[in-house]
């Protein structure tokens, strides 16, 4: 068969495929040629340039107590011909900011999780070490340690990369999140980032996790992940831990949805300072699909220190705490109701306009908790 006839047949097949795909409400599973040049974002779901990518986000509560577990989840959706399709196996950049700065930086995945691929950026090495670069497998509370991260650009053009990580202890409490560091990495080369931090006094002994991301920008600026999160385990205090092993890389089970859990610390370390900051939090997520489609979203919640009647910061340490002074304040307001002379709204934790045994139980349950 002459060559031009083969070409004509090929063109006809392509045109007819395109025609049928733009005149139907169902998505076809098809390898889209353009992805061959963009292995980092390969997916089997076809899309058109007129399609839109959307991401939803929600926090499980609008107000959390210090020590509570935060749950952030949402869905990545492809909007195609006025219908929406959950997008499985994609990376989502996630950033939680407290009132001061970054609190958590993660790369999560939409269920059922990403398949292996040749990513544009590889996190080729990540570990906790000493100032000379020697790896540490066990660290102690109060120790000054260094994080070493090596990023490799697999791509054929320079890539702007934001290096970001969060360390979690065995109870899934964030110990440290770095100020994201940005570099332009030339094609085919490595860059190593060194960052210093101090292990907080409240870190649980047991297996801690270093969770490392490579973003195109900070997630709060719409940056998406270049590659899956790299997880590295190390031990805090003792390698003979009784803590059960855990995984921060928990996967949602519903196709196209993502989830992230964070347990907030009940204690503060004033020397760093680190701990749970009360006040407003903002969560940002961002994702990319194919070459052109991006989406981002944000939500907010609050963290309060329940049981803190006097709401006074220690003038030297900046710490809010639930202690005997709060119990005294509550005793003074005990059995009062709204309008009474000894009424204290800060002792009415459940908002029923009475200070009674229920509020005392809340104080008792949170006794000893600290926040910044
Ligand atoms: Ca207090
Ligand atoms: Ca009450």
Protein model, in words:
The chain is mainly beta. Helix content is 10%, strand content 38%. The strands form 5 sheets. Strands 9, 11, 12, 13, 15 and 16 form a 6-stranded mixed β-sheet that branches. Strands 1, 2, 4, 5 and 17 form a 5-stranded antiparallel β-sheet that branches. The site of one calcium ion (CA) has 9 residues, from β20 and α2.
Number of helices: 3
Radius of gyration, rounded? 25 Å
The averaged pLDDT comes out at 88
Query: Residue ranges: pLDDT <50 for 5 or more in a row?
Result: 1-42
User: Portion of residues in helices?
Assistant: 10-25%
What can be said about the biggest beta sheet? 6 strands, mixed
Q: What share of residues are in beta strands?
A: 35-45%
Number of domains: 3
CATH fold field value of the largest domain: Coagulation Factor XIII, Chain A, domain 1
Short précis:
The chain is mostly beta strands and 372 residues long. It contains three helices and 21 strands.
